[in-house]
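ugh finaly. both done.
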Amino acid sequence: MEILTAAASEAQQRRVAGALRARGLRPGDRVAVCTPSSAAMLSCILGALRTGIVPVVLNPSLLDHERRALLDDADPQLVIDDALLETLLEGPAVDLAPHPLARPMHYTSGTTGRPKGVWSGLLEEAEARQLVDEERELWHFEPSDRHLVCSPFHHSVAIRFGGGTLLAGGELIVLGRFEAEAALRAIERFRPTTTFMVPAHLQRLFSAGDVPDLSCFRLLAHAGAPCPEPLKLAAIDAFGVDTVWEFYGSTEGQFTACSSQEWLDRRGTVGRARPGRRLSIDDGGVVWCEVPRHARWEYWRDPARTALAWKGGAFTVGDLGRLDRDGYLYLDGRRDDLIISGGVNVYPVEVEQVLAQAPGVEQIAVFGVADERWGQRVCAAVVGDVDPGALSRFARSRLAAYKCPKQYLVVDELPYTASGKLRRSTLAASLGLEPEPPAGAAGATGATATPPAASRPAP
């Protein structure tokens, strides 16, 4: 656990920026950040951003070949590991822009299993200010804030809330790795005022034992996965109705924000469009969000995928939903086949492509099952002469731990449609792991190809 003040981070940011400049990096260049979550990691990210250098932030739990594939795609000028980060922190201090001049680049895989980098390019000075002001005005970041960081900094949301707090003059309590007992001790000792948690964090927090007085919090924001109603009500009861907020967004961009009172009045909503945005639903039920210029992005060196994601000034990530007459959004389905386990995206196709190489596997289908702790747990149905234990060991040798199925079921056959498409959405119910879905439940739909509208083309 670390405490990071705005002043200490500012000094670290200035030295990291100076070290990067001394190495010849310039605005628009990319640096890959491959370190465990820490206070110094966030200072490194912010120091780079405030000189226009774009951090490509990678999950440190990726295996070597998984990381190499992303590095080959991102083509960074520099790869920052633990040892290099320590060296950069000793660099010569330089002046910084008042606001980050870019957004970090994160990878998201979608349903194809092939990662896509979300690239926003360099921001004009006015856009950079608007990006910071938007977050500050929505969440009311201020110098008196003490933010409890529960998510790792390879998640975009942790950078947004942690960076927003530091830029407003507040300080951070950085857990590094979320453990419920450590979070409870931090709350009791340091009395944080704000935090962000995924539902899995909340579930573990309430299951860990006696929860201390939570009246120190003015904001608990949650997102990253659907929050079960009993857990949502427990959070509202524990933190207070004026404290708990939900938002809906993705690596690509942010859509909505929702107070607890709005949610209580309209059970199941994820709120209305954030200021400066407009939501719409197309004929296929796909959610689109029109955003201001400072929130534009594109998929790194992938104009075809970018074209699918944009329609004029609005983008989609393929989620399905509906709007009521007052503009409140209700999600009817996540992206096709996506599993959200502990707030982390797991893409079945990527896992299947690896497990299909295991000895004895004839067919395999990876799917999510509702889970009280994780939101969803990753499961696999397998056809073939396989031993689940051996298959589990095979997976762990080739996939990061969060992608590995927690349960394997050997079956005689997998369900397919007449056209040969796997009925993935029915697997959990057909195997007795979940109740049968209601008739007419929404399925995933793809967006229609449209001309690209990202405002900053990738190199």
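ok and the 2nd:
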Amino acid sequence: MPYTLCITYTRSMQALPPGLDRLWAPEPGKPRRGGLTAGKVVAAAIELADAEGLDAVSMARVANALGFTTMSLYRHVRSKDELLVLMMDRVMALPPAEPYDGWRAGLEGWAWDILRLVRAHPWVLYVRISPPPATPASVTLMERGLAPLAGTPLAEDEKAQLILTINGYVFWQARLEAELAPGSGDPATDPLAAYVTVMHTLVDDRWPAVKRVVDAGVFDDAEDTRDADFAFGLERILDGVEAMLRR
């Protein structure tokens, strides 16, 4: 690397917050005494978050799961904030794109891939996104979303806005699934059951449009309609993109 570029690169690394500097300029993977590595810390934290949620992740809990002292973790991960950055980068790594024919199929596959990742690790819905993540995985995710639009006449800012819209829809759908998942069925403790009870017993002709939906049996279907619901919304977004392209 030329000297001037090397200086610029070094200064850029120094300006990055903890976690991003490690991801963009990873240190050699040399396990310290006892075989502990940053990778093992991240893997244990992800396992804990998958099992018990994001609130369960602390440096002490992760250390206990690994059989080490809390202080030993700080030799590999400088803080919980850095740990969360590393965790997000690990779990949001998209699989290779399947071959697709045209922008619509490409965006559809991209959206479903993101949804599968978030369903597998629902705790990512509750990680703060300010400032916007700039990990290698998040940049790769953006690249995967933009690539199908490369051959379209859209301006670059329009492409960015479209994938932001689709990504937002994916995360909102995933959050609905996570927070309104069927529970005990008791309205006193199950938010979804309470919602259905209100719809059926308290909605009357004061809300005629809502009542027509209730009377049509929309809330009676006990089957898992998550995929169908997601597909319906995604198709409508892509219909909008198609109309935009025609104009």
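summary for the 2nd one i guess: Residues 69 and 174 are 35 Å apart (CA to CA).
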